[in-house]
Amino acid sequence: LCCYLKPKNMVLIVRVRTSEGIRRVKLDDRSRLAALYEIVAKELHLVGQFRLKRNNGDVLQPDATGTLTQLGIKNGELFLLETFKSEVELERISMEKKRLEKLDLDPVDTILSAKDGKVARTVGKLCRHGPGTQCVNCIALDPYDPRLLQSYGPPIKFLSFHAYLRKLQHGGKFTQLEELTCMVKECFNHPPWPQGICSKCQPSAILLKRQPYRHVDYVEFESASVVDTFIDAWRKTGRQRVGFMYGKFEEYDLVPLGMKASVKAIYEPPQMNESLSFDVDMTCDELHKVDDLAAHLGLSPVGWIFTDLEPDTKGTPRYKRFLSPEDNKSYLVTAEEILNAALMQHRHPNAVSHKYSALGFHGSKYTTVILSANKKGEIVPSAYQATTQAMQLMRDDILRPSVNPSLVAVKPTSDDCYVPDVFFTERDEYGNDVKRAATPHFPVEYLFVDLPSGGKANSAQSMFKSKFPVENRGSTPSLAELANLFSSSLSFLRKVSDFHLLLFLALDPQCSAISNDLETLLHAIRDKDEDMACSWEASEGWATMKLLMDEVSRGNFGPTSTTTPTTTSSSSSSGWSCQRCTLINNASARQCTACGGPRN
């Protein structure tokens, strides 16, 4: 008897090189290329189109006839995987490219980027050359040169951001700014966290470093009245106060390639105030309206400011922010304040060229100013910024404040969130840099840089004059106060150049006649254009407001009156109150003489 023995199928192992490494694929040697493509797509979780290539560049066609053995594919052979973007991915990439191309850099960044930043030096005693030449003793220094930074008095502790960029590019090097991420990457090799994690999806350990640069080098208040008006709320109530600063970022000549935040005005949002705390609703619609108003004035958010003042038995503010070796709980700024500052900065990212960051953003220029007392009991501003690392760690929800105000806690790993290892370096008693684990807590000094702050030398040319009542201080400013302001002999442009007045005109319901027609006035204030301001003064909306102010001055109706319209029978002798603007009209009038509102 003759029997026919069918040869046993052999298992073939091929390797596929991907962007994430080499993967092995097992299949039968009598399988066809179509089966290979199906297994590769399933194993590597590929959704779009792709193709496999051999080392010699030949493309494996899925519809080729013959088995893998017949096509000459051997065990252990290596293929290169090439993927093709889907239409959705191509559209997303195109939109991202357009976003980066249209990215609006701050004007001061454009100016500083065009400068070389070198600081010239004069010929000294050690120079032994003739005119028109230079030596190592008189050649211009780079803005990041330590000798230059130490020559200032006092020495400059931190590089400016643009000087730091020059340092990264020194010698023709090309590098991008570091971007941290603490999130677990998507991985198909195992179940998601907490069931599994591997070296490909696990975020790298984080080493906290003291930031060598700062985005803003000085905070300048355009006039003393800007800060004094803000502190006045604490003087009257004894409760802490918070505000948002609006102004411009400008060049700062006292630091190589430096930048300063020039504060023009402080807006005080709706808030809950206590003697030791405050609470602000950051989702309030009023915040966006104020941002839009400031943008028309040519201003942008430059930071936030709050008080931390406690009176002693004599009523003098107590000195409480200092560092003492004997007190491990002494602090200049608390962990809670810096973590909140990091969140505020994350809302206002700093736009950079895409050659420095693929995201188009890095860090923030947004500043934090704390008003507290010094040793003499004087109220002084202290400015800070959270580091870029602090912003990125808070974005990924890694850090927490601790009971000790000078220490920051690291959130422990849980089933809901994987937290990578966090380390920081400090010097021991022998002067050696030692790496230590940041868990459970670490010093807050690793998360912030300090900034000098002060007032402008010449505040006579300030943009605003603060005479109108400040918003959100318990009572709403009235039309009587508005009428009193415009009774002065100043020019119309100077009268309306008050940030708090402009907020009242834009946000208060009493000014609804002009709230939607303020753009021209705001541009006139921005450009200091008297003619444009006078043209707006002659508008119909402002004529209505003047009519209302005249009626208030004559005492015809109250500025905050909520009187409801009277009935026709009772109004024959005393007139009637307009439901829209509360003006008392004559009994015979069928519509309001001020706003045109109907009688009933």
Describe the fold and architecture.
24% of the residues lie in helices and 22% in strands. The protein has 15 helices and 27 strands. It has an eight-stranded mixed beta sheet. The model is unreliable at 559-573 (pLDDT under 50).
- Helix coverage percent: 10-25%
Overall 3D form: globular
Please, what is the average pLDDT?
85
Strand order of the largest sheet: 24-18-17-14-10-11-9-25
Beta-strand percent range = 15-25%
Main β-sheet, in a few words?
8 strands, mixed
Count helical runs: 15
Which stretches are poorly predicted, pLDDT < 50 over at least 5 residues? 559-573
Q: Tell me the span between the first and last alpha carbons.
A: 115 Å
Radius of gyration: 34 Å
| SS-derived structural category | alpha+beta
Quantity of strands, as a count = 27
Brief summary:
With 600 residues, the protein is of the alpha+beta class.
Topology diagram in text:
Elements: E1 11-18, E2 21-28, H1 33-43, E3 50-53, E4 59-60, E5 78-83, H2 87-101, H3 107-113, H4 146-151, E6 159-160, H5 161-168, E7 206-208, E8 213-214, E9 218-221, H6 224-237, E10 242-252, E11 258-267, E12 271-273, E13 278-280, H7 285-296, E14 300-307, E15 322-324, E16 327-331, H8 335-346, E17 367-373, E18 379-386, H9 388-395, E19 399-401, E20 407-410, E21 422-427, E22 433-437, E23 441-443, E24 448-451, E25 453-455, H10 479-485, H11 492-496, H12 499-507, H13 519-527, H14 530-537, H15 540-554, E26 576-577, E27 584-585
Helix pairs in contact: 7-12, 8-9, 10-15, 13-14
